[in-house]
Amino acid sequence: MKPFQYTRLSTEDLSLGTTLRDSTILAGGTNLVDLMKYGVEEPDSLADIGKLPYAQIEESDKGLLLGALVTNADTAYHAAVKSTYPVLNKAILAAASSQLRNRATNGGNLLQRTRCYYFYDTTMPCNKREPGTGCAAIKGFNRIHAILGTSASCIATHPSDMCVALAALEAKVHVLRKGETIVIPFDQLHRLPGDQPEKDHNLEPGDLITHIQLPAEGFSEHFEYLKIRDRESYAFALVSVAACLKVSQGKIADIRVALGGVAHKPWKLKEVEKDFFGKEASTENFQSLAEQLIQGAQGFGTNDFKISLVKGAIVRALNNALNPS
Ligand SMILES: Cc1cc2nc3c(=O)[nH]c(=O)nc-3n(C[C@H](O)[C@H](O)[C@H](O)COP(=O)(O)OP(=O)(O)OC[C@H]3O[C@@H](n4cnc5c(N)ncnc54)[C@H](O)[C@@H]3O)c2cc1C
Ligand code: SF4
Q1: Which superfamily, per CATH, for 222-322?
Q2: Which Pfam family, an example, fits this chain (predicted)?
Q3: Which of 8, 44, 222, 254 pairs with 136 at a CA distance of 20 to 30 A?
Q4: pLDDT for 140-180, tens place per residue?
Q5: What number does the ligand 1 atom closest to the CA of 105 have?
Protein backbone atom coordinates (compact mmCIF):
# COMPACT_ATOMS: atom_id res chain seq x y z
CA MET A 1 0.00 0.00 0.00
CA LYS A 2 1.28 3.46 -0.87
CA PRO A 3 2.21 5.59 2.20
CA PHE A 4 -0.30 8.34 3.01
CA GLN A 5 -0.84 11.16 5.48
CA TYR A 6 -3.54 10.65 8.11
CA THR A 7 -5.47 13.42 9.89
CA ARG A 8 -8.35 13.01 12.31
CA LEU A 9 -10.65 16.00 11.81
CA SER A 10 -12.27 17.82 14.71
CA THR A 11 -15.29 20.12 14.69
CA GLU A 12 -12.91 23.10 15.02
CA ASP A 13 -11.14 22.03 11.85
CA LEU A 14 -14.41 22.33 9.99
CA SER A 15 -15.39 25.66 11.57
CA LEU A 16 -11.90 27.00 10.78
CA GLY A 17 -12.67 26.13 7.18
CA THR A 18 -10.12 23.33 6.85
CA THR A 19 -10.46 22.19 3.28
CA LEU A 20 -11.17 18.56 2.48
CA ARG A 21 -10.38 19.19 -1.19
CA ASP A 22 -6.96 17.62 -1.14
CA SER A 23 -7.83 14.66 1.09
CA THR A 24 -9.88 11.53 0.73
CA ILE A 25 -12.56 11.20 3.38
CA LEU A 26 -12.30 8.13 5.61
CA ALA A 27 -15.44 7.04 7.50
CA GLY A 28 -15.82 3.35 8.49
CA GLY A 29 -13.15 2.39 5.96
CA THR A 30 -14.87 -0.87 4.95
CA ASN A 31 -14.69 0.00 1.26
CA LEU A 32 -11.95 2.60 1.04
CA VAL A 33 -9.31 0.59 2.90
CA ASP A 34 -9.94 -2.45 0.66
CA LEU A 35 -9.52 -0.25 -2.41
CA MET A 36 -6.25 1.10 -1.02
CA LYS A 37 -4.95 -2.40 -0.30
CA TYR A 38 -5.70 -3.43 -3.90
CA GLY A 39 -4.00 -0.29 -5.24
CA VAL A 40 -7.24 0.86 -6.90
CA GLU A 41 -7.23 4.07 -4.87
CA GLU A 42 -3.94 5.62 -3.78
CA PRO A 43 -4.73 8.79 -1.82
CA ASP A 44 -1.85 10.95 -0.58
CA SER A 45 -3.87 12.08 2.41
CA LEU A 46 -6.78 10.67 4.42
CA ALA A 47 -9.14 12.86 6.49
CA ASP A 48 -10.78 10.70 9.17
CA ILE A 49 -14.22 12.20 9.90
CA GLY A 50 -15.09 9.72 12.67
CA LYS A 51 -15.10 12.33 15.45
CA LEU A 52 -17.31 14.89 13.67
CA PRO A 53 -20.76 15.49 15.18
CA TYR A 54 -22.82 13.57 12.63
CA ALA A 55 -23.48 10.38 14.57
CA GLN A 56 -27.05 11.09 15.69
CA ILE A 57 -30.52 10.34 14.38
CA GLU A 58 -32.92 13.25 14.96
CA GLU A 59 -36.70 13.15 14.68
CA SER A 60 -38.64 16.18 13.44
CA ASP A 61 -42.06 16.96 11.94
CA LYS A 62 -40.38 17.00 8.50
CA GLY A 63 -39.19 13.43 8.91
CA LEU A 64 -36.05 11.77 10.19
CA LEU A 65 -32.51 13.13 9.90
CA LEU A 66 -29.90 10.36 9.75
CA GLY A 67 -26.37 11.47 10.59
CA ALA A 68 -23.78 10.48 7.99
CA LEU A 69 -21.67 8.82 10.71
CA VAL A 70 -24.43 6.69 12.22
CA THR A 71 -23.58 3.08 11.46
CA ASN A 72 -25.75 1.05 9.14
CA ALA A 73 -26.64 -1.23 12.08
CA ASP A 74 -27.73 1.60 14.39
CA THR A 75 -29.78 3.08 11.54
CA ALA A 76 -31.58 -0.18 10.75
CA TYR A 77 -32.41 -0.85 14.42
CA HIS A 78 -33.49 2.70 15.32
CA ALA A 79 -37.09 2.59 16.59
CA ALA A 80 -38.34 5.23 14.14
CA VAL A 81 -36.68 3.54 11.16
CA LYS A 82 -38.21 0.20 12.14
CA SER A 83 -41.70 1.61 12.64
CA THR A 84 -41.95 4.34 9.99
CA TYR A 85 -39.43 3.34 7.29
CA PRO A 86 -39.42 -0.49 7.36
CA VAL A 87 -38.30 -0.66 3.71
CA LEU A 88 -35.03 1.00 4.79
CA ASN A 89 -34.64 -1.35 7.77
CA LYS A 90 -35.11 -4.35 5.49
CA ALA A 91 -32.74 -3.07 2.79
CA ILE A 92 -29.93 -2.35 5.26
CA LEU A 93 -30.29 -5.73 6.96
CA ALA A 94 -30.11 -7.46 3.56
CA ALA A 95 -26.61 -6.01 3.08
CA ALA A 96 -23.16 -7.34 3.96
CA SER A 97 -22.77 -8.98 7.41
CA SER A 98 -23.56 -7.82 10.94
CA GLN A 99 -19.85 -7.10 11.57
CA LEU A 100 -19.67 -4.87 8.48
CA ARG A 101 -22.95 -3.13 9.29
CA ASN A 102 -21.57 -2.32 12.76
CA ARG A 103 -18.65 -0.48 11.16
CA ALA A 104 -20.06 0.89 7.87
CA THR A 105 -21.52 4.39 8.03
CA ASN A 106 -24.47 5.91 6.18
CA GLY A 107 -22.32 8.45 4.32
CA GLY A 108 -19.86 5.74 3.27
CA ASN A 109 -22.67 3.48 2.11
CA LEU A 110 -23.90 6.17 -0.29
CA LEU A 111 -20.45 6.67 -1.81
CA GLN A 112 -19.20 3.07 -1.82
CA ARG A 113 -17.75 2.13 -5.18
CA THR A 114 -18.82 -0.47 -7.73
CA ARG A 115 -18.00 -4.15 -7.23
CA CYS A 116 -17.07 -4.66 -10.92
CA TYR A 117 -14.32 -7.31 -10.83
CA TYR A 118 -12.23 -5.48 -13.44
CA PHE A 119 -12.33 -2.25 -11.43
CA TYR A 120 -10.62 -4.10 -8.56
CA ASP A 121 -8.09 -5.87 -10.82
CA THR A 122 -5.40 -3.31 -11.63
CA THR A 123 -3.99 -5.51 -14.43
CA MET A 124 -7.21 -5.07 -16.47
CA PRO A 125 -8.43 -2.12 -18.56
CA CYS A 126 -11.06 -0.07 -16.74
CA ASN A 127 -12.31 3.41 -17.70
CA LYS A 128 -13.57 4.05 -14.19
CA ARG A 129 -10.22 3.32 -12.52
CA GLU A 130 -8.05 4.67 -15.34
CA PRO A 131 -9.97 6.80 -17.86
CA GLY A 132 -9.22 6.02 -21.48
CA THR A 133 -8.00 2.43 -20.98
CA GLY A 134 -11.26 0.74 -22.08
CA CYS A 135 -13.86 -1.42 -20.39
CA ALA A 136 -12.97 -5.07 -19.84
CA ALA A 137 -16.51 -5.92 -18.73
CA ILE A 138 -18.40 -5.12 -21.94
CA LYS A 139 -16.99 -8.15 -23.77
CA GLY A 140 -15.90 -9.96 -20.61
CA PHE A 141 -17.69 -11.75 -17.78
CA ASN A 142 -20.49 -9.36 -16.91
CA ARG A 143 -22.93 -11.38 -14.79
CA ILE A 144 -23.20 -8.62 -12.14
CA HIS A 145 -23.27 -5.70 -14.57
CA ALA A 146 -25.85 -3.16 -15.66
CA ILE A 147 -28.67 -3.50 -18.18
CA LEU A 148 -30.04 0.07 -17.96
CA GLY A 149 -28.42 3.47 -18.49
CA THR A 150 -25.12 1.96 -19.63
CA SER A 151 -22.63 3.64 -21.96
CA ALA A 152 -19.93 2.50 -24.35
CA SER A 153 -17.45 3.46 -21.62
CA CYS A 154 -18.82 1.58 -18.60
CA ILE A 155 -21.52 -0.92 -17.60
CA ALA A 156 -20.88 -0.96 -13.84
CA THR A 157 -23.66 -1.03 -11.23
CA HIS A 158 -23.99 0.80 -7.94
CA PRO A 159 -23.80 -1.93 -5.28
CA SER A 160 -25.68 -0.42 -2.33
CA ASP A 161 -28.90 -1.88 -0.92
CA MET A 162 -29.55 1.09 1.38
CA CYS A 163 -29.48 3.49 -1.58
CA VAL A 164 -32.25 1.60 -3.37
CA ALA A 165 -34.58 2.10 -0.40
CA LEU A 166 -33.52 5.76 -0.05
CA ALA A 167 -34.29 6.30 -3.75
CA ALA A 168 -37.78 4.80 -3.31
CA LEU A 169 -38.41 6.98 -0.26
CA GLU A 170 -37.17 10.05 -2.20
CA ALA A 171 -34.73 11.01 0.55
CA LYS A 172 -32.53 14.10 0.41
CA VAL A 173 -28.82 14.37 1.09
CA HIS A 174 -27.33 17.24 3.13
CA VAL A 175 -23.85 18.20 1.98
CA LEU A 176 -21.39 20.64 3.51
CA ARG A 177 -19.81 22.52 0.60
CA LYS A 178 -17.38 25.37 1.29
CA GLY A 179 -18.93 26.01 4.71
CA GLU A 180 -22.56 26.04 3.44
CA THR A 181 -25.10 23.22 3.61
CA ILE A 182 -26.71 22.30 0.32
CA VAL A 183 -29.55 19.78 -0.07
CA ILE A 184 -29.50 17.31 -2.97
CA PRO A 185 -32.54 15.21 -3.95
CA PHE A 186 -31.50 11.56 -3.84
CA ASP A 187 -31.99 10.93 -7.55
CA GLN A 188 -29.45 13.67 -8.29
CA LEU A 189 -26.70 12.31 -6.05
CA HIS A 190 -25.47 9.47 -8.26
CA ARG A 191 -24.98 9.66 -12.02
CA LEU A 192 -25.02 7.45 -15.09
CA PRO A 193 -21.57 6.65 -16.52
CA GLY A 194 -21.83 8.47 -19.88
CA ASP A 195 -18.34 9.28 -21.14
CA GLN A 196 -17.03 10.06 -17.64
CA PRO A 197 -17.41 6.77 -15.75
CA GLU A 198 -14.67 7.80 -13.33
CA LYS A 199 -17.31 10.04 -11.73
CA ASP A 200 -19.73 8.01 -9.58
CA HIS A 201 -21.72 10.99 -8.32
CA ASN A 202 -22.38 14.71 -8.66
CA LEU A 203 -20.49 15.82 -5.54
CA GLU A 204 -17.48 18.10 -5.83
CA PRO A 205 -14.04 17.46 -4.32
CA GLY A 206 -14.16 18.57 -0.67
CA ASP A 207 -17.91 17.98 -0.28
CA LEU A 208 -18.86 16.29 2.99
CA ILE A 209 -22.16 14.41 3.39
CA THR A 210 -23.51 15.34 6.84
CA HIS A 211 -27.06 13.90 6.90
CA ILE A 212 -29.68 11.98 5.00
CA GLN A 213 -33.17 13.41 5.34
CA LEU A 214 -36.11 11.01 5.16
CA PRO A 215 -39.48 12.56 4.27
CA ALA A 216 -42.42 12.21 6.66
CA GLU A 217 -44.08 9.50 4.52
CA GLY A 218 -42.41 6.15 5.15
CA PHE A 219 -44.86 3.68 3.50
CA SER A 220 -44.98 1.55 6.64
CA GLU A 221 -48.16 -0.28 5.59
CA HIS A 222 -47.26 -1.46 2.09
CA PHE A 223 -43.57 -1.98 1.39
CA GLU A 224 -41.08 -4.60 0.23
CA TYR A 225 -37.34 -4.86 -0.29
CA LEU A 226 -36.64 -7.87 -2.44
CA LYS A 227 -33.00 -8.80 -2.99
CA ILE A 228 -32.03 -11.56 -5.38
CA ARG A 229 -28.45 -12.80 -5.14
CA ASP A 230 -26.29 -15.85 -5.69
CA ARG A 231 -26.16 -16.69 -1.95
CA GLU A 232 -28.86 -16.06 0.63
CA SER A 233 -26.53 -13.95 2.76
CA TYR A 234 -23.33 -11.94 2.52
CA ALA A 235 -23.66 -11.29 -1.21
CA PHE A 236 -24.36 -8.22 -3.31
CA ALA A 237 -27.63 -8.02 -5.24
CA LEU A 238 -27.94 -9.39 -8.75
CA VAL A 239 -31.14 -7.40 -8.81
CA SER A 240 -33.09 -5.77 -6.02
CA VAL A 241 -36.38 -3.93 -5.79
CA ALA A 242 -37.60 -1.41 -3.20
CA ALA A 243 -41.37 -1.14 -3.60
CA CYS A 244 -43.63 1.26 -1.70
CA LEU A 245 -47.36 1.61 -2.16
CA LYS A 246 -50.28 3.62 -0.87
CA VAL A 247 -53.62 2.07 -1.69
CA SER A 248 -57.10 3.55 -1.35
CA GLN A 249 -60.17 1.41 -2.10
CA GLY A 250 -58.11 -0.93 -4.24
CA LYS A 251 -56.60 1.91 -6.30
CA ILE A 252 -52.99 3.08 -6.33
CA ALA A 253 -52.73 6.40 -4.45
CA ASP A 254 -48.92 6.44 -4.59
CA ILE A 255 -46.34 4.01 -5.92
CA ARG A 256 -42.56 4.00 -5.74
CA VAL A 257 -40.29 1.44 -7.33
CA ALA A 258 -36.50 1.68 -7.24
CA LEU A 259 -34.19 -0.97 -8.67
CA GLY A 260 -30.72 -2.05 -7.57
CA GLY A 261 -28.10 -4.12 -9.41
CA VAL A 262 -29.25 -2.94 -12.83
CA ALA A 263 -27.64 0.47 -13.34
CA HIS A 264 -24.86 2.85 -12.29
CA LYS A 265 -27.36 4.39 -9.84
CA PRO A 266 -30.60 3.24 -8.22
CA TRP A 267 -33.06 3.11 -11.14
CA LYS A 268 -36.36 4.93 -10.62
CA LEU A 269 -38.60 6.70 -13.12
CA LYS A 270 -41.05 9.15 -11.53
CA GLU A 271 -42.91 9.73 -14.82
CA VAL A 272 -43.65 5.99 -15.12
CA GLU A 273 -44.85 5.79 -11.50
CA LYS A 274 -47.19 8.77 -11.95
CA ASP A 275 -48.94 7.04 -14.88
CA PHE A 276 -50.23 4.43 -12.44
CA PHE A 277 -51.74 6.78 -9.85
CA GLY A 278 -55.49 6.08 -9.67
CA LYS A 279 -55.23 2.71 -11.42
CA GLU A 280 -56.23 -0.58 -9.82
CA ALA A 281 -53.54 -2.16 -7.63
CA SER A 282 -53.40 -5.39 -9.64
CA THR A 283 -50.81 -7.84 -10.94
CA GLU A 284 -51.66 -6.76 -14.50
CA ASN A 285 -50.86 -3.14 -13.76
CA PHE A 286 -47.71 -4.12 -11.88
CA GLN A 287 -46.60 -6.10 -14.96
CA SER A 288 -47.25 -3.11 -17.17
CA LEU A 289 -45.28 -0.84 -14.82
CA ALA A 290 -42.38 -3.32 -14.84
CA GLU A 291 -42.32 -3.31 -18.67
CA GLN A 292 -42.22 0.47 -18.77
CA LEU A 293 -39.63 0.79 -16.03
CA ILE A 294 -37.10 -1.39 -17.82
CA GLN A 295 -37.84 -0.27 -21.37
CA GLY A 296 -34.61 -0.23 -23.39
CA ALA A 297 -32.83 -2.72 -21.11
CA GLN A 298 -29.85 -4.32 -22.81
CA GLY A 299 -27.76 -7.30 -21.73
CA PHE A 300 -24.08 -7.85 -22.54
CA GLY A 301 -24.00 -11.66 -22.67
CA THR A 302 -23.55 -13.16 -19.23
CA ASN A 303 -26.01 -10.70 -17.68
CA ASP A 304 -28.84 -11.14 -20.22
CA PHE A 305 -30.80 -13.11 -17.60
CA LYS A 306 -31.23 -9.94 -15.52
CA ILE A 307 -33.85 -8.54 -17.92
CA SER A 308 -36.48 -11.20 -17.20
CA LEU A 309 -35.29 -11.58 -13.60
CA VAL A 310 -35.87 -7.93 -12.74
CA LYS A 311 -39.25 -7.86 -14.48
CA GLY A 312 -40.47 -10.76 -12.34
CA ALA A 313 -38.89 -9.28 -9.21
CA ILE A 314 -40.74 -5.96 -9.65
CA VAL A 315 -44.11 -7.71 -9.90
CA ARG A 316 -43.33 -9.97 -6.95
CA ALA A 317 -42.14 -7.07 -4.79
CA LEU A 318 -45.26 -5.02 -5.56
CA ASN A 319 -47.56 -7.95 -4.83
CA ASN A 320 -45.72 -8.60 -1.55
CA ALA A 321 -46.07 -4.91 -0.68
CA LEU A 322 -49.77 -4.98 -1.47
CA ASN A 323 -50.43 -8.13 0.57
CA PRO A 324 -47.99 -8.05 3.51
CA SER A 325 -47.61 -11.45 5.15
C1 LIG B 1 -17.43 -8.18 2.12
C2 LIG B 1 -18.37 -7.02 1.94
C3 LIG B 1 -19.69 -7.25 1.60
C4 LIG B 1 -20.57 -6.18 1.43
N5 LIG B 1 -21.88 -6.42 1.08
C6 LIG B 1 -22.72 -5.37 0.86
C7 LIG B 1 -24.06 -5.56 0.44
O8 LIG B 1 -24.53 -6.70 0.27
N9 LIG B 1 -24.83 -4.46 0.24
C10 LIG B 1 -24.36 -3.20 0.43
O11 LIG B 1 -25.13 -2.24 0.26
N12 LIG B 1 -23.10 -2.98 0.82
C13 LIG B 1 -22.28 -4.02 1.02
N14 LIG B 1 -20.98 -3.79 1.39
C15 LIG B 1 -20.47 -2.42 1.35
C16 LIG B 1 -20.55 -1.70 2.64
O17 LIG B 1 -21.90 -1.43 2.92
C18 LIG B 1 -19.77 -0.41 2.44
O19 LIG B 1 -18.41 -0.76 2.37
C20 LIG B 1 -19.98 0.60 3.54
O21 LIG B 1 -21.33 1.01 3.61
C22 LIG B 1 -19.10 1.82 3.34
O23 LIG B 1 -19.18 2.64 4.49
P24 LIG B 1 -17.86 3.12 5.25
O25 LIG B 1 -18.30 4.02 6.32
O26 LIG B 1 -17.02 1.96 5.65
O27 LIG B 1 -17.19 3.94 4.05
P28 LIG B 1 -15.65 4.16 3.70
O29 LIG B 1 -15.06 2.91 3.19
O30 LIG B 1 -14.95 4.88 4.80
O31 LIG B 1 -15.85 5.21 2.51
C32 LIG B 1 -16.46 4.83 1.29
C33 LIG B 1 -16.41 6.05 0.35
O34 LIG B 1 -17.28 7.08 0.81
C35 LIG B 1 -16.55 8.30 1.03
N36 LIG B 1 -17.19 8.89 2.22
C37 LIG B 1 -17.46 8.26 3.39
N38 LIG B 1 -18.17 9.05 4.20
C39 LIG B 1 -18.36 10.23 3.54
C40 LIG B 1 -19.03 11.45 3.86
N41 LIG B 1 -19.68 11.62 5.02
N42 LIG B 1 -19.01 12.47 2.95
C43 LIG B 1 -18.38 12.31 1.75
N44 LIG B 1 -17.73 11.18 1.41
C45 LIG B 1 -17.73 10.13 2.28
C46 LIG B 1 -15.11 7.88 1.21
O47 LIG B 1 -14.22 8.90 0.83
C48 LIG B 1 -15.03 6.68 0.27
O49 LIG B 1 -14.85 7.13 -1.06
C50 LIG B 1 -20.09 -4.85 1.60
C51 LIG B 1 -18.76 -4.62 1.95
C52 LIG B 1 -17.89 -5.69 2.11
C53 LIG B 1 -16.47 -5.40 2.47
S1 SF4 C 1 -17.81 -1.75 -16.22
FE2 SF4 C 1 -16.96 0.22 -15.58
S3 SF4 C 1 -15.90 -0.32 -13.69
FE4 SF4 C 1 -16.16 -2.23 -14.84
S5 SF4 C 1 -14.37 -2.48 -16.20
FE6 SF4 C 1 -15.89 -1.39 -17.35
S7 SF4 C 1 -15.32 0.75 -17.00
FE8 SF4 C 1 -14.39 -0.41 -15.36
Answers
A1: CO dehydrogenase flavoprotein, C-terminal domain (3.30.390.50)
A2: FAD_binding_5
A3: 44
A4: 999 999 999 999 999 999 999 999 999 999 999 999 998 89
A5: 25
